[in-house]
Amino acid sequence: MKYSDSFYVDVLIDNLQFEPGREQTFFTYLVPGNLREKIKPGSPVIVPLRNIQVGGYVIKILDNPPQNMECKQVFTVLDSIFDEEYIKLLKWVADYYLCPIKNVIQSAIPAGLLTKIRKGIKVIGDSAKFDEILSPSNSFLIRGIKDPAFYNLCNYLKNNVNKEISVLSLKYRFGSNIIRHFHKLVNMGLIDIKTDIITPDIKGKQMLYAMVILEDTSNLTKKQSEVLHTLIKQGGSMPVKNLIKITNTSKVVIDGLKMAGRINLYKDRIFRNPTEAVDANKEIKYLTQYQKNALLEIEKSLNGLKHGKSSNTPILLHGVTGSGKTEVYIRACKKVIADGGDALVLVPEIGMTPQILGQFKEHFKENIGILHSALSKGERIDEWQKIKAGLYKIVIGARSSIFAPLKNLKIIIIDEEHDNSYKQETSPRYHARTVALKRAELSDAIVIMGTATPAIETFYNAINGTIKLVPLPERVQNRPLPEVKIIDMSEEFKKGNRTIFSRILKSAMEERLKRKEQIILFINRRGYSTYVFCRACGNSLTCPNCSVSLIYHTNNPTLSPSGNNFLKCHYCDYMLDMPKTCPYCQSVYIKHFGTGTQKIEELTKKEFPYASIQRFDSDVTTKKHSHKEILERFKNHEIDILIGTQMVAKGLDFPDVTLVGSLVADSFLNMPDFRANEKTFQLLTQVAGRAGRGDTLSEVIIQTYVPEHQSILTSKNHDYLSFFKQEIETREELKYPPFSQIINVVTASMDSNTAMNYSQTFVNYLKESDLDSVYAVLGPVPALISKIRNYYRWQTLIKCKEFIPVLTYIKQIINKINYPQSIKLTVDIDPMNMF
């Protein structure tokens, strides 16, 4: 398109006031000719809106000027950080998940790359003008304003004439609604709006370099000559710290060479390399016939897309644990890169990244980028910029890496596609799998989903043809699946065993330790004990901010500043030292009950004092690289027994693990969640899959109080199909996914009645719709966790037969109700948790 001297753009305003369901706000602006070369879709801009400057992003360049509309001009254009296709993806996520696009942008792009706008006001009115407003005859009546907050604001501003005040401090002092009075004060000539544009500092990490400018050693000391010769041999330029190390010299010698006119010193940007510490896995892999068949199917889809002969139908790689899915991923990526495309590989846990990265690194060397939240701010910025610049052909990362700015994306691989970690629990509440399918559609790419335990919805779509099903039913090298034994712990109790270890598990552990083999113990609770209870008055200690029990932790200097045993809420992080007496009745009969990873670690050390034992949960992996360090020690046989939560169930591949023990297998089954059976089966099957990766026969021992439950029995036999057939019948009968789509609406307030009333108002509107035949409403009811961070929570569950019309109607309801700032409204599309 050719532009005249001026043209027009649609700008998405970067506004914090958007609420779930509100329409995204676009405004049309005039772009003066001097900015013509700089502006394009995705450009951050500063524009005027209601007498203040605000930030936004160019969404669209208009083919024709708007009719009968006078448009304001764009003030400033900054460097673009994403393109038009990327904008479409971000906007789709915002619309589908009913969230501000600002939240999507903040999730997608490292904070250091985003422009910030700091808003403030300058008080320009004199005291006399404020006295006139504040006079008794005029108070609350000026221009129809009847708001005590306005009066209080004017009184405050009167005492700060000629001062600049940040909007943030005014919102903190008077509440968020105070900003609605600013335009009145501007019109009265009492304040000016001030805007500071804080552009991103992306200079990155700098390093001092030395560069030869004169190859002459005359009149130099012996050490100076040696350093100069070394620098010449290294190509004439290198980092000073490396030169000092190689020549065993000091900075004084380097400075002397500069003063002698032989070298120059300069600073240049270096990119951090978070993959540097990861060793390549040099194991040679041979493909089974099933792996070859899977690759043929993937290559057929890729070739079809390349030549425009097929659609981008997703592929489900349904393989038992240990069937070699990663090797298929690697070879599929090789095919894509050979054809000039880019590849994205998603893994569910940050802790898994180093292991799968090592396997990819052997094949792709340094051509791999990584993205996940454990990277430092600088590392994340460096990686994002290198990906955007096209310096990587493959990116590996956790959930948020679905937004990696790859330019020619042709394949998205989702390893362990069933995993709950792919669903974000804060705004934007997106599921990486859903976003991946949309991104593949926009990029003309294919999605490969791999798992031994597919999500029920995914497998249902696969057997109905929406997704292409590719099986991997055998382990590589014909290794057998481990034998699984189910132990009824109620029988153990009847026989006098009061310990957490069944007699069979304890005996098996002793045998493995004698043979120098390794063991994984799984329990899905962290902490020491799950609650603290007074046996005198019957009260348990709960969080004052949340309706949950406090978890008991033993002495841990990392988590407890006092170093004492302490109680902690895992929702709001409230902590207190373990009381010596009951706070309700002052009895000394207060004790902790239940079992978590910390207690299992202590009990295991007592039972097996000669073994090296390590806990692996989120409490001990808070430091950077702690995941990698623990797994590296386990790989090197420095750890005999690894005790962990769900982290040990995901993708770990250690050939010397010959015993896996699941200590409390039924922890999910009592949850009021329609996915409880599915989560239990997936978790037990995945945990069991950590055994038998080598040539030694292995076994899995599952301890439970419900040994006849379908999730337990089918996981014992590694029988996904039997589990699916039973579970799908229940889902169909109750009209749960895949026979409906779920929306969970939570209304929260610091006042319980307010939360209940607004929740009921929402449901009343739902019941008025003529769409009631395409959805069912459950609620409102108090949420399972009825209070979090002092907010009371009421919940409404909507089962949709037709999703888009219901979503559209929910947007309309939200706009009708016009929720006040005191209400927190959460609209969770396709929720993974029901609390």
What does this structure look like?
- This protein is α/β, with parallel strands linked by helices.
- The protein has six domains: 111 residues, GIY-YIG endonuclease; 80 residues; 188 residues, 3-Layer(aba) Sandwich (Rossmann fold); 185 residues, P-loop containing nucleotide triphosphate hydrolases (Rossmann fold), CATH 3.40.50; 69 residues, no CATH class; 89 residues, Alpha-Beta Plaits.
- 32% of the residues lie in helices and 23% in strands.
- The protein has 24 helices and 33 strands.
- Strand 31 and strand 32 form a beta hairpin.
- Helix 1 crosses helix 2, helix 20 packs parallel to helix 21 and helix 21 runs antiparallel to helix 22.
- It starts with 6 loop residues before the first strand and ends in a 6-residue tail after the last strand.
CATH class of the largest domain: Alpha Beta
How are the strands ordered across the major sheet?
14-15-13-16-17-12-18
Distance between the termini: 51 Å
- The CATH H-level superfamily of the largest domain is P-loop containing nucleotide triphosphate hydrolases
Q: Got a strand count?
A: 33
- How much β-strand is present in the residues? 15-25%
Short description:
With 835 residues, the chain is of the alpha/beta class.
What distinguishing features does this structure have?
32% helix; 835 residues; 6 domains; alpha/beta; Rossmann fold; GIY-YIG endonuclease; six-stranded parallel sheet
List the helices and strands and how they pair.
Elements: E1 7-13, E2 26-31, E3 44-49, E4 52-61, E5 76-77, H1 84-96, H2 101-108, E6 116-123, H3 127-134, H4 148-158, E7 164-166, H5 167-174, H6 182-187, E8 191-198, E9 205-212, H7 222-233, E10 237-239, H8 240-247, H9 251-259, E11 263-270, H10 289-306, E12 315-319, H11 325-338, E13 342-346, H12 353-364, E14 368-371, H13 377-388, E15 394-397, E16 409-415, H14 432-443, E17 446-451, H15 456-463, E18 468-472, E19 483-488, H16 489-494, H17 503-514, E20 518-522, E21 531-534, E22 551-553, E23 566-568, E24 575-577, E25 590-593, H18 597-607, E26 613-616, H19 626-635, E27 641-644, E28 657-662, H20 676-688, E29 699-704, H21 710-716, H22 720-734, E30 741-749, H23 752-768, E31 775-788, E32 791-800, H24 803-817, E33 824-829
Parallel strand pairs: 12-17, 12-18, 13-15, 13-16, 14-15, 16-17, 19-29, 20-27, 20-28, 26-27, 28-29
Antiparallel strand pairs: 1-2, 1-4, 3-4, 3-5, 6-7, 6-8, 9-10, 9-11, 21-25, 22-23, 23-24, 30-32, 30-33, 31-32
